[in-house]
């Protein structure tokens, strides 16, 4: 049986008006240019390609924290590299049983990827145990805290957009004393975060 196409096959008005056809083709033909222009604009936001070596902080060297824990932060991708689009940190955790207070990032999504060791997370009211090779995604504005659950650990921490976490790390590292919980909460607030509860205790 022959297969016939007619005006009802695709429910297209027939005959199609010439001007409408030309207009449709103009829109379709312009799509690659639009996509290319947007891609070029995005590429223009990133100034250059760079490599950060193992065990190296791209900026600031090794950032040694005080108070919250004795962890070391290496900036792998700075917010200044991405026009604030995102930032990536490598954290070497040296304080078993210690971690962050319960807090929120109102404007940033956060991803933790465990490279070594083990960590416990409290996200809202749910507990998660993470070991090497596992990750957790935390949407913005969701209360969370984590605690180091092994003698040593290492994580990659990604924030999108970058926010002011890099500034927070630098401010904590610059302290000449172990800050009180009240001081820590104030520094959180100054860097677009809010402490809303105590640190997570291991069972």
Automatic annotation (TrEMBL):
Entry-linked Pfam families: Cupin_2
Segments traversing the membrane: 20-41
Gene3D superfamilies for this protein: Jelly Rolls (2.60.120.10)
Keywords: Membrane, Transmembrane, Transmembrane helix
Highest taxon, organism lineage: Bacteria
Cupin type-2 domain location: 95-152
Name recorded for this polypeptide: Cupin type-2 domain-containing protein
Native organism: Dyadobacter linearis
